[in-house]
Write a structure and sequence with these properties.
This protein is an all-alpha fold and 236 residues long. Helices cover 66% and strands 2% of the residues. The protein has a domain of 154 residues. The protein is elongated, with a radius of gyration of 18 Å.
Length: 236
């Protein structure tokens, strides 16, 4: 199984999408998310980090922010005496430090949104490294912690992981549940387009039925994404 590369995880409208999804704006705004493969992982990881930085600094959040600073640290010498960035002598040192920091959040604040975010980051890191079994474990932990919104992002990424791993049935089950119970962070339209992608080969008629109404949606972004998926999947 190929790992999720940073190149694969790039997407346009990145900053706008992050702000829409985590400022709890209207449903039309949050539907600007793109729905392709590994890109979703980077969007969601960055989105939760953005949210934490804009939130009130509770003890739990401070612990998570400290972990995020390690995660965003650089390998090499510090830029200067006043540089607040975390720096590490080697890539391995950074990986060990961030794994410990996120695991500490999970251990100390089990069941909280912060623990869910920490577990999500560990899952994304593992997926990026091609460690799919480990990523699955962390995404499941993230889904079991925190509130419904955080669980939905973890479950959505878990579904994407199953798609990449060839476990279409498991992905389909999760996405159908998300279509039935959308959240602020995973909209019904987002889950529907992802579900159509999963069903395109085995159930093309149903995939077409899911995408047809979205192509005519009043929100041009939704319509454009549905149309793009329709073309990419070769539906007639």
């Amino acid at each position: 199984m190929d790992k999720f590369t940073r190149k694969d995880m790039k997407t346009d409208r990145f900053a706008e999408q992050v702000q829409h999804s985590l400022r709890f704006v209207t449903s039309h705004s949050r539907q600007t998310l793109l729905y392709s493969g590994g890109a979703l992982l980077l969007i969601l990881v960055s989105a939760v980090a953005y949210y934490v930085r804009q939130s009130q600094q509770t003890t739990r959040q401070q612990t998570l922010v400290s972990a995020l600073r390690i995660h965003e640290g650089v390998v090499g010498p510090a830029a200067g005496p006043g540089d607040p960035s975390a720096t590490f002598p080697t890539k391995e040192a950074k990986e060990q430090a961030q794994a410990k920091a996120f695991q500490d959040v999970i251990s100390k604040h089990a069941g909280s949104n912060e623990a869910s975010v920490a577990a999500y980051h560990l899952g994304a890191i593992a997926a990026d490294a091609g460690k799919m079994d480990e990523a699955e474990k962390h995404f499941k932990t993230a889904a079991a912690s925190g509130g419904k919104d955080y669980a939905s992002t973890a479950n959505f990424s878990l579904a994407q992981l199953y798609v990449f791993s060839g476990k279409s049935n498991e992905a389909e089950k999760i996405l159908r549940a998300l279509v039935d119970s959308p959240t602020t962070l995973v909209s019904k339209e987002q889950a529907t387009i992802a579900l159509a992608r999963v069903l395109a080969k085995s159930k093309p008629a149903e995939a077409k039925k899911l995408l047809d109404p979205l192509q005519k949606d009043k929100n041009p972004v939704i319509a454009r994404n549905a149309l793009a998926a329709y073309g990419e999947l070769g539906l007639q």
